[in-house]
């Protein structure tokens, strides 16, 4: 196992209550040039409520598999994702990620024309009889996390020499594709599923996130690793320590395209656990469906022309999800039988 040889990295910490915005911008710029990861604290979400969200997440994952499969991920990527559903690093993994998850998006009624768009529509919810208050807690957290994400986006805008409200516009984060994902990495049941990079076995394979930014809340179990230089041979991986009362924030691939690579290539990260059970809550923030992701005017010049062609957010995300998730038809028999 390589884990014992992996050191921990040191990340910048940005306080959202810091009165000196120039300090926050400088810290973010440095993080974007170094690792693409940083901590955010003083975000306004109480630890008491965070503890409740984690408790409710655990209650869902403790349900029998037949109950969880009743809300299996649909074509809108809403609902439950079973163990091995996702394979983030097919070149190096021997099977899918040894984690289960639950997607919760922006709630859009089925009869709303917006529901015809990818990633929009009604969410799937566990029965109130089984998990009372579960939906209420998750919807509140979704709203709170979006507020925090927008505050971080304002600092990012300033770091790119843009107006602070650049990402607040309707075509940006005014009508975002914002997705909450609960994650549970099981304790090792058999030696076959022990995380071991040398054997291609991971809690989550190496990947970069798709969108603008990701807010990650974790329990106190260490498992997240980052690779600051994906081109290095061999790659060097470092642990990211959990931070109580704070978020681990990382930049996504879209920000690399927007910034024309002024902000570093979206950082590879993975989860390696050595048999420990772990819970985390990721909040992925992308702009609206029609948003054209293209080089920002402050990030191009005659000597640094745009490096990527324009692409709509919706088209880009659709392809990334198709590349990494199992085909839903593979679950047809399982959902019919409802087996344990």
In a few lines, what is going on in this structure?
The chain has 340 residues and is of the alpha+beta class.
Keywords:
340 residues; 8-stranded mixed β-sheet; IPNS-like_sf; alpha+beta; IPNS-like_FE2OG_OXY; 2-oxoglutarate-dependent dioxygenase; oxidoreductase; Jelly Rolls; 26% helix
Task: Give a written overview of the molecule.
With 340 residues, this protein is of the alpha+beta class. The protein has one domain: Jelly Rolls (Sandwich). Helix content is 26%, strand content 19%. The chain contains eight helices and 14 strands. The protein has helices at residues 21-34, 47-61, 65-68, 134-159, 170-174, 253-258, 313-324, 332-337; strands spanning 13-15, 37-41, 79-81, 100-104, 177-185, 204-207, 213-218, 224-227, 238-239, 247-251, 268-271, 278-286, 292-293, 311-312. The strands form three sheets. It has an eight-stranded mixed sheet with strand order 1-2-10-7-12-5-4-3. The protein has a four-stranded antiparallel sheet with strand order 6-11-8-9, with no helix packed on it. α1 (21-34) packs across α4. The longest helix is centred in the middle third of the chain and has 26 residues, at 134-159. Mean pLDDT is 87; it is low at 335-340.
């Amino acid at each position: 196992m390589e884990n014992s040889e992996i050191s921990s990295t040191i990340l910048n910490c940005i306080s959202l209550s810091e009165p000196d915005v120039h300090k926050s911008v400088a810290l973010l710029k440095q993080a974007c040039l170094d690792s693409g990861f940083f901590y955010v604290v003083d975000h306004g979400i109480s630890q008491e409520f965070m503890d409740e969200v984690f408790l409710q997440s655990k209650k869902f994952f403790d349900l029998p598999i037949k109950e969880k499969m009743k809300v299996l991920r649909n074509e809108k990527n809403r609902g439950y994702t079973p163990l091995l559903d996702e394979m983030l690093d097919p070149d190096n993994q021997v099977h899918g990620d040894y984690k289960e998850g639950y997607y919760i998006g922006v709630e859009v009624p089925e009869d709303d024309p917006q529901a015809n768009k990818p990633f929009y529509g009604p969410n799937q919810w566990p029965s109130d009889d089984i998990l009372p208050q579960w939906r209420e807690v998750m919807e509140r957290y979704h709203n709170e996390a979006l507020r925090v994400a927008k505050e971080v986006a304002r600092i990012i805008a300033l770091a790119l020499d843009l107006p602070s409200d650049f990402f607040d516009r309707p075509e940006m984060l005014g009508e975002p594709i914002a997705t909450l994902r609960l994650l549970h990495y099981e304790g090792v049941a058999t030696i076959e599923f022990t995380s071991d990079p040398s054997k291609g076995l991971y809690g989550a394979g190496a990947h970069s996130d798709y969108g603008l930014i990701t807010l990650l809340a974790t329990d106190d179990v260490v498992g997240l690793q980052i690779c600051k230089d994906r081109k290095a041979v061999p790659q060097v991986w470092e642990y990211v320590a959990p931070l109580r009362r704070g978020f681990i924030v990382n930049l996504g691939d879209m920000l690399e395209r927007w910034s024309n690579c002024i902000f570093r290539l979206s950082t590879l990260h993975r989860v390696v656990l050595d048999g420990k059970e772990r819970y985390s809550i990721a909040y992925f923030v992308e702009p609206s469906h029609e948003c054209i992701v293209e080089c920002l005017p402050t990030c191009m010049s005659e000597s640094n022309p745009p490096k990527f062609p324009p692409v709509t957010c919706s088209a880009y995300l659709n392809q990334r999800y198709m590349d990494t998730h199992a085909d839903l038809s593979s679950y047809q028999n399982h959902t019919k039988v409802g087996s344990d």
